[in-house]
Amino acid sequence: MPQSRRPKKVLVQALVALAIALVVGVIALFLGFRIISSVNSQASKQKLEVEAEKKRLAEEEARLKEEERLLATKKKITSYSVVYTRSNLMPGEAIVPSLVELKKTEEKPDRMVFQKVSDVLGMVAKLPILAGEPLERNKLMDTGSYFSVPEGTRALSLLMTSIASIDSALVPGVRVDVLVTFSTPQWGKVTQTVLQNVQVIAVSQAGAKGRDGEALKKITVSVTPEQAEKLILASNIGSFHLTLRNVRDKTLAKLPGTDLNKLLLKGNGASPMIQKETVPPKAPDVLALPTPEKEKAEYRITIFKGTGSETVGFYQ
Protein backbone atom coordinates (compact mmCIF):
# COMPACT_ATOMS: atom_id res chain seq x y z
CA MET A 1 0.00 0.00 0.00
CA PRO A 2 2.60 2.50 0.79
CA GLN A 3 4.25 1.91 -2.61
CA SER A 4 0.99 2.52 -4.59
CA ARG A 5 0.30 5.85 -2.88
CA ARG A 6 3.70 7.24 -3.87
CA PRO A 7 3.11 7.29 -7.66
CA LYS A 8 -0.19 8.99 -7.11
CA LYS A 9 1.50 11.66 -5.09
CA VAL A 10 4.10 12.22 -7.78
CA LEU A 11 1.39 12.40 -10.40
CA VAL A 12 -0.51 15.01 -8.42
CA GLN A 13 2.62 17.04 -7.95
CA ALA A 14 3.29 16.88 -11.69
CA LEU A 15 -0.20 18.01 -12.49
CA VAL A 16 0.04 20.86 -10.05
CA ALA A 17 3.35 21.91 -11.53
CA LEU A 18 1.86 21.69 -15.01
CA ALA A 19 -1.10 23.79 -13.96
CA ILE A 20 1.17 26.36 -12.41
CA ALA A 21 3.24 26.39 -15.57
CA LEU A 22 0.16 26.90 -17.68
CA VAL A 23 -1.01 29.73 -15.49
CA VAL A 24 2.42 31.35 -15.61
CA GLY A 25 2.49 30.87 -19.40
CA VAL A 26 -0.91 32.45 -19.77
CA ILE A 27 0.12 35.33 -17.58
CA ALA A 28 3.38 35.72 -19.55
CA LEU A 29 1.48 35.57 -22.80
CA PHE A 30 -0.99 38.16 -21.58
CA LEU A 31 1.77 40.40 -20.34
CA GLY A 32 3.70 39.96 -23.60
CA PHE A 33 0.61 40.84 -25.59
CA ARG A 34 0.06 43.89 -23.45
CA ILE A 35 3.65 44.95 -23.85
CA ILE A 36 3.59 44.41 -27.60
CA SER A 37 0.30 46.28 -27.90
CA SER A 38 1.70 49.12 -25.83
CA VAL A 39 4.84 49.25 -27.95
CA ASN A 40 2.84 49.23 -31.15
CA SER A 41 0.53 51.92 -29.80
CA GLN A 42 3.51 54.03 -28.77
CA ALA A 43 5.12 53.56 -32.18
CA SER A 44 1.89 54.56 -33.91
CA LYS A 45 1.57 57.59 -31.68
CA GLN A 46 5.16 58.61 -32.36
CA LYS A 47 4.61 58.11 -36.08
CA LEU A 48 1.56 60.34 -36.00
CA GLU A 49 3.47 62.93 -34.01
CA VAL A 50 6.36 62.82 -36.50
CA GLU A 51 3.97 63.20 -39.43
CA ALA A 52 2.23 66.08 -37.68
CA GLU A 53 5.60 67.76 -37.01
CA LYS A 54 6.64 67.29 -40.63
CA LYS A 55 3.40 68.84 -41.76
CA ARG A 56 3.87 71.76 -39.37
CA LEU A 57 7.47 72.30 -40.55
CA ALA A 58 6.36 72.17 -44.18
CA GLU A 59 3.68 74.78 -43.51
CA GLU A 60 6.17 76.96 -41.65
CA GLU A 61 8.66 76.66 -44.50
CA ALA A 62 5.99 77.60 -47.02
CA ARG A 63 5.00 80.59 -44.88
CA LEU A 64 8.65 81.76 -44.63
CA LYS A 65 9.13 81.41 -48.38
CA GLU A 66 6.00 83.45 -49.02
CA GLU A 67 7.23 86.16 -46.63
CA GLU A 68 10.62 86.19 -48.37
CA ARG A 69 8.91 86.48 -51.74
CA LEU A 70 6.77 89.39 -50.58
CA LEU A 71 9.79 91.08 -49.00
CA ALA A 72 11.81 90.64 -52.19
CA THR A 73 8.93 92.06 -54.23
CA LYS A 74 8.68 95.01 -51.89
CA LYS A 75 12.42 95.64 -52.11
CA LYS A 76 12.28 95.34 -55.86
CA ILE A 77 9.60 97.98 -56.06
CA THR A 78 11.27 100.44 -53.68
CA SER A 79 14.92 99.97 -54.71
CA TYR A 80 16.74 102.64 -56.76
CA SER A 81 19.96 102.69 -58.75
CA VAL A 82 22.68 105.31 -58.22
CA VAL A 83 25.90 105.81 -60.21
CA TYR A 84 29.01 105.99 -58.00
CA THR A 85 32.67 106.63 -58.82
CA ARG A 86 35.22 103.83 -58.44
CA SER A 87 38.21 106.19 -58.16
CA ASN A 88 39.03 109.88 -57.77
CA LEU A 89 38.20 112.11 -60.74
CA MET A 90 40.03 115.30 -61.63
CA PRO A 91 38.49 118.26 -63.50
CA GLY A 92 38.45 117.58 -67.23
CA GLU A 93 38.69 113.78 -66.82
CA ALA A 94 36.33 111.87 -69.10
CA ILE A 95 33.91 109.33 -67.66
CA VAL A 96 34.52 105.77 -68.93
CA PRO A 97 32.84 102.51 -67.76
CA SER A 98 35.82 101.45 -65.63
CA LEU A 99 35.55 104.60 -63.50
CA VAL A 100 31.92 104.18 -62.40
CA GLU A 101 29.62 101.53 -60.93
CA LEU A 102 25.90 101.14 -60.31
CA LYS A 103 24.67 100.50 -56.77
CA LYS A 104 21.20 99.76 -55.38
CA THR A 105 19.63 101.75 -52.57
CA GLU A 106 16.24 101.69 -50.84
CA GLU A 107 16.27 105.47 -50.35
CA LYS A 108 15.01 107.61 -53.19
CA PRO A 109 18.02 109.56 -54.56
CA ASP A 110 18.10 113.29 -55.17
CA ARG A 111 17.00 114.40 -58.64
CA MET A 112 20.54 115.75 -59.27
CA VAL A 113 22.02 112.24 -58.96
CA PHE A 114 22.57 110.09 -62.08
CA GLN A 115 20.76 106.73 -62.03
CA LYS A 116 22.06 105.25 -65.30
CA VAL A 117 25.67 104.60 -66.28
CA SER A 118 24.85 105.34 -69.92
CA ASP A 119 23.87 108.91 -68.96
CA VAL A 120 27.37 109.77 -67.66
CA LEU A 121 29.59 108.01 -70.19
CA GLY A 122 31.50 110.53 -72.30
CA MET A 123 30.90 113.43 -69.91
CA VAL A 124 33.78 115.13 -68.08
CA ALA A 125 34.25 116.21 -64.49
CA LYS A 126 33.88 119.93 -63.75
CA LEU A 127 35.05 119.57 -60.15
CA PRO A 128 37.25 117.11 -58.22
CA ILE A 129 35.17 114.03 -57.32
CA LEU A 130 36.27 111.53 -54.67
CA ALA A 131 36.00 107.75 -55.06
CA GLY A 132 32.72 106.36 -53.77
CA GLU A 133 30.77 109.58 -54.32
CA PRO A 134 27.48 109.57 -56.24
CA LEU A 135 27.77 111.39 -59.55
CA GLU A 136 25.70 114.58 -59.59
CA ARG A 137 24.73 116.72 -62.55
CA ASN A 138 26.34 119.87 -61.21
CA LYS A 139 29.72 118.09 -61.04
CA LEU A 140 29.79 116.95 -64.69
CA MET A 141 29.56 118.70 -68.04
CA ASP A 142 28.95 117.61 -71.58
CA THR A 143 31.97 116.95 -73.78
CA GLY A 144 30.57 119.36 -76.36
CA SER A 145 31.69 122.31 -74.28
CA TYR A 146 35.07 120.84 -73.38
CA PHE A 147 36.58 118.77 -76.18
CA SER A 148 34.85 120.12 -79.31
CA VAL A 149 36.61 123.49 -79.39
CA PRO A 150 38.79 123.39 -82.53
CA GLU A 151 42.41 124.35 -82.19
CA GLY A 152 42.98 128.09 -82.51
CA THR A 153 39.39 128.98 -81.59
CA ARG A 154 37.55 129.92 -78.42
CA ALA A 155 34.21 128.82 -76.98
CA LEU A 156 31.85 131.73 -76.33
CA SER A 157 28.31 131.45 -74.96
CA LEU A 158 25.36 133.61 -76.02
CA LEU A 159 22.11 133.95 -74.08
CA MET A 160 18.95 134.16 -76.17
CA THR A 161 15.31 133.13 -76.29
CA SER A 162 13.93 130.12 -78.18
CA ILE A 163 12.74 132.38 -81.02
CA ALA A 164 16.13 134.02 -81.40
CA SER A 165 17.95 130.68 -81.25
CA ILE A 166 15.87 128.70 -83.83
CA ASP A 167 14.66 126.55 -80.91
CA SER A 168 14.84 122.77 -81.49
CA ALA A 169 16.63 123.05 -84.87
CA LEU A 170 19.75 124.24 -83.07
CA VAL A 171 21.95 121.30 -82.06
CA PRO A 172 25.71 120.90 -81.56
CA GLY A 173 27.56 120.66 -84.85
CA VAL A 174 25.36 122.94 -86.98
CA ARG A 175 26.63 126.21 -88.40
CA VAL A 176 24.92 129.56 -88.05
CA ASP A 177 25.21 133.26 -88.83
CA VAL A 178 25.08 135.68 -85.91
CA LEU A 179 23.03 138.87 -86.31
CA VAL A 180 22.82 141.75 -83.86
CA THR A 181 20.12 144.42 -83.69
CA PHE A 182 21.07 147.75 -82.13
CA SER A 183 20.07 151.42 -82.15
CA THR A 184 21.96 154.28 -83.82
CA PRO A 185 21.32 158.02 -83.57
CA GLN A 186 21.42 158.35 -87.39
CA TRP A 187 19.28 155.43 -88.64
CA GLY A 188 17.44 154.19 -85.56
CA LYS A 189 17.20 150.42 -85.31
CA VAL A 190 19.77 148.54 -87.39
CA THR A 191 20.29 144.81 -87.90
CA GLN A 192 23.74 143.69 -89.00
CA THR A 193 25.27 140.27 -89.61
CA VAL A 194 28.43 140.29 -87.51
CA LEU A 195 29.63 136.70 -88.02
CA GLN A 196 28.97 134.05 -90.63
CA ASN A 197 29.41 130.27 -90.71
CA VAL A 198 30.31 129.78 -87.06
CA GLN A 199 29.94 126.33 -85.48
CA VAL A 200 27.63 125.60 -82.56
CA ILE A 201 29.36 123.29 -80.07
CA ALA A 202 26.84 123.18 -77.21
CA VAL A 203 23.19 124.01 -76.48
CA SER A 204 21.71 124.06 -72.98
CA GLN A 205 19.17 125.79 -70.77
CA ALA A 206 20.62 128.89 -69.14
CA GLY A 207 18.49 128.57 -66.01
CA ALA A 208 17.49 132.24 -66.31
CA LYS A 209 14.63 134.20 -67.87
CA GLY A 210 14.54 137.14 -70.23
CA ARG A 211 12.68 140.43 -69.85
CA ASP A 212 9.39 138.87 -70.99
CA GLY A 213 9.75 135.94 -68.60
CA GLU A 214 10.71 133.48 -71.34
CA ALA A 215 13.37 130.90 -70.51
CA LEU A 216 16.78 131.66 -71.99
CA LYS A 217 19.02 129.25 -73.83
CA LYS A 218 22.79 129.22 -73.66
CA ILE A 219 24.30 128.76 -77.12
CA THR A 220 28.04 128.08 -77.17
CA VAL A 221 29.84 128.77 -80.46
CA SER A 222 33.40 128.27 -81.65
CA VAL A 223 35.00 131.53 -82.78
CA THR A 224 38.45 133.03 -83.35
CA PRO A 225 39.80 135.44 -80.72
CA GLU A 226 39.02 138.37 -83.05
CA GLN A 227 35.46 137.16 -83.59
CA ALA A 228 35.05 136.74 -79.84
CA GLU A 229 35.87 140.42 -79.36
CA LYS A 230 33.23 141.39 -81.93
CA LEU A 231 30.57 139.23 -80.28
CA ILE A 232 31.31 140.57 -76.83
CA LEU A 233 31.11 144.16 -78.09
CA ALA A 234 27.89 143.41 -79.98
CA SER A 235 26.36 141.81 -76.87
CA ASN A 236 26.75 145.12 -75.06
CA ILE A 237 24.98 147.23 -77.68
CA GLY A 238 22.10 145.04 -78.87
CA SER A 239 20.36 141.68 -79.00
CA PHE A 240 21.38 138.54 -80.90
CA HIS A 241 19.59 136.34 -83.41
CA LEU A 242 20.88 133.23 -85.17
CA THR A 243 20.15 131.99 -88.68
CA LEU A 244 20.74 128.33 -89.53
CA ARG A 245 22.99 127.58 -92.52
CA ASN A 246 22.95 124.67 -94.93
CA VAL A 247 25.69 122.22 -93.96
CA ARG A 248 27.24 122.49 -97.44
CA ASP A 249 27.06 126.28 -97.65
CA LYS A 250 30.46 127.83 -96.95
CA THR A 251 29.79 131.13 -98.75
CA LEU A 252 30.44 134.38 -96.87
CA ALA A 253 27.94 136.89 -98.21
CA LYS A 254 28.55 140.66 -98.35
CA LEU A 255 25.76 142.01 -96.19
CA PRO A 256 25.55 145.79 -95.59
CA GLY A 257 22.87 145.49 -92.93
CA THR A 258 19.26 146.67 -92.79
CA ASP A 259 17.68 149.72 -91.17
CA LEU A 260 14.09 150.96 -90.96
CA ASN A 261 14.32 152.87 -94.23
CA LYS A 262 15.41 149.80 -96.16
CA LEU A 263 12.89 147.63 -94.34
CA LEU A 264 9.99 149.91 -95.34
CA LEU A 265 11.40 150.39 -98.89
CA LYS A 266 11.20 154.16 -98.84
CA GLY A 267 12.52 156.06 -101.84
CA ASN A 268 14.52 153.71 -104.06
CA GLY A 269 14.73 151.09 -101.38
CA ALA A 270 18.39 151.75 -100.68
CA SER A 271 19.51 152.06 -97.10
CA PRO A 272 21.15 155.34 -96.06
CA MET A 273 23.84 153.12 -94.57
CA ILE A 274 25.11 152.39 -98.09
CA GLN A 275 23.97 155.46 -100.02
CA LYS A 276 26.66 157.61 -101.53
CA GLU A 277 26.75 161.24 -100.56
CA THR A 278 24.37 163.16 -102.85
CA VAL A 279 24.84 166.73 -104.15
CA PRO A 280 22.06 169.01 -102.88
CA PRO A 281 20.04 170.79 -105.60
CA LYS A 282 21.23 174.26 -106.70
CA ALA A 283 19.50 177.09 -104.88
CA PRO A 284 17.38 179.48 -107.01
CA ASP A 285 18.96 182.80 -108.06
CA VAL A 286 17.13 184.96 -105.58
CA LEU A 287 18.38 187.43 -103.08
CA ALA A 288 18.50 185.83 -99.76
CA LEU A 289 20.25 186.50 -96.54
CA PRO A 290 23.25 184.28 -96.03
CA THR A 291 22.70 181.56 -93.47
CA PRO A 292 25.51 180.06 -91.50
CA GLU A 293 26.47 176.63 -92.78
CA LYS A 294 25.89 173.86 -90.33
CA GLU A 295 28.85 171.80 -89.39
CA LYS A 296 28.60 168.35 -90.87
CA ALA A 297 28.60 165.52 -88.38
CA GLU A 298 30.60 162.50 -89.42
CA TYR A 299 29.46 158.94 -88.59
CA ARG A 300 31.28 155.70 -89.21
CA ILE A 301 30.07 152.13 -89.19
CA THR A 302 32.12 148.96 -89.46
CA ILE A 303 30.71 146.07 -91.51
CA PHE A 304 32.07 142.64 -90.57
CA LYS A 305 32.45 140.14 -93.40
CA GLY A 306 33.57 136.76 -92.18
CA THR A 307 36.91 137.37 -90.52
CA GLY A 308 37.41 140.71 -92.32
CA SER A 309 35.76 144.11 -91.91
CA GLU A 310 35.02 147.30 -93.87
CA THR A 311 34.53 150.80 -92.44
CA VAL A 312 32.15 153.25 -94.18
CA GLY A 313 31.87 156.94 -93.26
CA PHE A 314 28.76 159.16 -93.51
CA TYR A 315 28.02 162.85 -92.96
CA GLN A 316 24.88 164.46 -91.64
Please describe what this structure looks like.
There is one protein chain. This protein is an alpha+beta fold. The protein is built from 3 helices and 12 strands; from the N terminus they run H-E-E-E-E-E-E-E-E-H-E-E-H-E-E. Strands 5, 6, 7, 8, 9 and 10 form a 6-stranded antiparallel beta sheet that branches. A two-stranded antiparallel sheet has the order 1-2. It has a two-stranded antiparallel sheet with strand order 3-4. The protein is rod-shaped, with a radius of gyration of 52 Å.
The topology string of helices and strands comes to HEEEEEEEEHEEHEE
Report the biggest beta sheet as strand number plus sense, adding barrel if it closes.
Answer: 6 strands, antiparallel
Gap between N and C termini, in Å? 190 Å
Provide the low-confidence segments as ranges.
Answer: 267-279, 283-292
Report the average pLDDT across residues. Answer: 76
Assign the structural class, choosing from mainly alpha, mainly beta, alpha/beta, alpha+beta, or little secondary structure.
alpha+beta
Number of helices: 3
Residue fraction in strands: 25-35%
Total DSSP E strands? 12
Helix content: 25-40%
Question: Mind telling me the C-alpha Rg?
Answer: 52 Å
Please state the overall shape, judged from the principal axes of the Cα atoms: rod-shaped
